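Suppose you are handed a protein chain with no further information: no name, no annotation, nothing but its sequence. What can you learn? This example shows the usual starting point.
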Amino acid sequence: MFPKGQIHIDFYDEIQAAPEEVLLRLFKFLGVEASTAHISKDLHKKVNSTDGYKIGIPATIACEIALQNVDQLEKLSQRFGGYTTEWLERAEKILAKENRDT
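A reasonable first move is to predict its three-dimensional structure. Written in structure tokens, the prediction is:
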């Protein structure tokens, strides 16, 4: 078991939304100088982008995924809030829509 101070948690959603802030927090956690001088100028450059290739998840599959994960999402939301609460709300919205449609 690792002590709490030796575990760093961030979410992919935040890496997408605010990569510089995530890196600065990570630098601080690692005990290195938290400076933008260590951050690539290409930080916001898209690499292997899926733009133009996105396909929506069919409603029946989205509902099944939400149903299988809603309990875990509730626990994550209680523990971390933020993005995990958004994930939970999205799953609950999918399930509510499914219940209205059936």
